[in-house]
Structures are given as C-alpha cells and as structure tokens.
Amino acid sequence: MQFEMTWVWNLRRANAIFQIQILEKALSKDPMQPTIRQLQHFIALAETGQVSRAALRCHVSQSAMTASLQALEKVLGLPLFTRQAAGVRLTTEGLRFLHNAQRIVRSLEEAVDDVRTVPVGVQGKVRIGLTETVSAYLMPRLLPAVRRKFPQLEVVCIERERQETEDALLAGRLDFALMLASNLSDHPDLQCETLLRSVRQFWASHEHPLIQQERVCLAEIAAQPYLLLDMDEHLTTVERFWSRHALRPQVCLQSRSIEAVRSLVAAGQGVTILSDLVYRPWSLEGQRIARRPISDEVPSMDVGLVWSRRYNPQEAWQALIAFLRDTISS
Fold first, then answer.
1. Strand, helix or coil at 80?
2. Separation of alpha carbons 189 and 149, rounded Å
3. Are 150 and 281 in contact (CB under 8 A)?
4. Domains in the chain, start-ordered, CATH in brackets?
5. Which of 59, 129, 205, 326 has the lowest tally of Cβ within 10 angstroms?
6. From residue 227, how far is each of 75, 247, 262, 285 by CA, in Å?
7. Among 12, 43, 8, 37, which residue's Cα sits nearest to residue 23?
8. pTM, rounded to two decimals
C-alpha cells in the first residue's frame, strides 16, 4: 500500500511539473505571448479598479504596473480597460480576457500546489453537508484541494437547507457539515467550530456618491434603494442587524439570485450589504462594483464546521478536519 501511494504521488507530481513547464514555456518564452506576471497584474487591476491599489497588491511601483499593462495590451493588440476619473472599467474584450486569465493563473496555482502536496493515505467514505453559500463560494477550490491531499478518500458532498442539514447530522446521515454558523440552531447535540469570519461591507457602483467616503453608516445606507439578497437565510441576519439599530432599508428588489443583485448594484440601480466571501469586483456585464467598510456594528458572515456530539467525527476524520481548518482559515 505504501509503495502504491508513493507511485501515485510521484506520477501526479510529475504531471503537475509538466503542466507548469508547459505554462511557463507558453507564457514566458514567446515574446508575442503574455507573461504570467502580466496576467497577475491585469487580474489585480481588474479586481481593485485602480493602478495604485493593484501596484500595492502586487508589490510593484505604479510605473512598473502601468508599463506591464501597456505591454499586455500591446501584445494582445486591443484595449482591456477604459480609463476613467474614478478608476478603470473593463472593455468587452477585457472582461472576456479576465475570465481566461483567471483560469490560467488558477491552473498554475493548482499545479504548484499539486507538486507541493504530499497525499495522505486516509481511506473510506466521508459525507459532508453543505449549505448554499458554502457550496457556491468555498467548494470550487476546496474540494479539488481535498482530493489532491486525500486521493484514496471518497468525498460525498450534499447541499441542503440548514434545517435539513442539521437533521441529517443528528440522525448520523452526515459525518459533519460546513455551513453558516450565525443561523445555527441551539440544539444541545450540535457542536460548531468557526473556521472563517467574512466581513460584511457596503456595496455600490464605483460612481455612487457614498463610495467617495472612507466609511458608510447604516443610516446613510437606509436612505438608498436597497437590493436584498434572499439566500441561505440571509433575510434573518439582515433583519437582525437592521433592527438592532432601529433602521429599515428601502428594499426595491428582493432576489434569490446573487448575480442579479451584483449586476443591479454595478449598474447603479441600488446598493446592498454583503460579505467579502461572495464579493466579485465586476458584474457579468463588465461593470465595476465597489465596497466600503460600515462604521456601525454589522455581524460578520461566519462559516463553521458543525457536527453532532452523538457521532463525533473528530477522531475518525482528524487529518481531514485539520486540513479543512487550515485551508479555509488561510
């Protein structure tokens, strides 16, 4: 068994190194192809919206960032941004290129991670419950990492509403769950360990007047048309923190679609308060979304590891839980 594990790991490691070499050759050797660094600079500018912030994030000077982006546009032969007073806006071509650039950089990161990951020989079948937000925003990167680390482990993920997930934990149909901890019931047999605290911030179009401020208070937000997301019991949390401050938002749209909320915010049709975990700087239409801290106390969105004390998974899945804890918290 140890020989088989070593052989499989060496094969996967060689394959990952080969992928890195292909990417490096394709993106660095040919002067008519973008470099990895240029792609990273482009993604940073797309996500921050300003050259100064992108340069700070990439640890380069503003002049170096500008030169890198100009060289990228020259290689591609088309503009990726339109420059505006408040920052930049992606062109149609820039938005399309952004998705591909993110995919390339993500593939490189995964290949590097694959080389560095030493697999663990845990075997068996683990059943993990998920709620909607965790499934959409954590699992696309978390699940591949788990499968690289535990190649012999059968991982079954089941997304359900919170109450269904709790019932399955208590009945032993799930080993543990990753879910939003803030709405967890107070059942005495349910245990929770918070793995991630995601700050909630004010979202608006980058041209919105309140974005010019360093911080925004809830009273100012309450005076704006408000776009209310209705997913994963978000309404319960919203009602809780608005009531605490004796305020109510002027809801102009209530939707279960986060992409609808994101697009309308970017188009200047309203504002919202959402967590950094679900933040994306651009709508599907290529319009930019800005965010600012809230001066009043607003609870973070917490992701927790939840299990039933009747079927404590800590011993059986100790290595997996430790890996999830480190990966999510980082």
1. coil
2. 30
3. no
4. 2-116 (1.10.10.10), 124-197+302-329 (3.40.190.10), 200-299 (3.40.190.10)
5. 59
6. 40, 15, 9, 18
7. 37
8. 0.76
